[in-house]
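=== RUN LOG ===
request id: a7f3
mode: sequence -> structure
chains: 1
length: 136
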Amino acid sequence: MSRGDREEGDGPAAAYVFRVTVRLDPEVEGVWTEPDAFETTVFREADPPGEPGWLYFRDNLWRGECGDAAHMRAVAEDALGMSVDSIDFRELRTTQAYLDDLRAAVADDLGAFNADTVDEALTKYLGSSIHVTDEV
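=== RESULT ===
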């Protein structure tokens, strides 16, 4: 679903934002593109805290960067259906309500984050890359 397909106010409460360099590899001989690579912004909707997939940030990010760049490139390639040269995490773009729910879910299980406080846990994985906004 693209942003244009959503009703106003019907968007996600939070999204992971990545800067990705994709490469076009035409499969037909004698066909090429210029440029053959370009940067784009890729968004991944954040699952609601406590729901399956909500630990995406813990499992894939470290100190505000992709924890395993090769793995994240492969995930992006699968999602986009094209070659990915590089991927960089930019931010968790979130509403205040989602962030409040995220903080509460993290607080309920600090041991899963090997942290003493919610702030320590979020910083450990997201760095300072949390952007609170009214509309994601």
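=== NOTES ===
The CA atoms of residues 95 and 133 lie 5 Å apart.
DSSP finds four helices and six strands in the chain.
=== END ===
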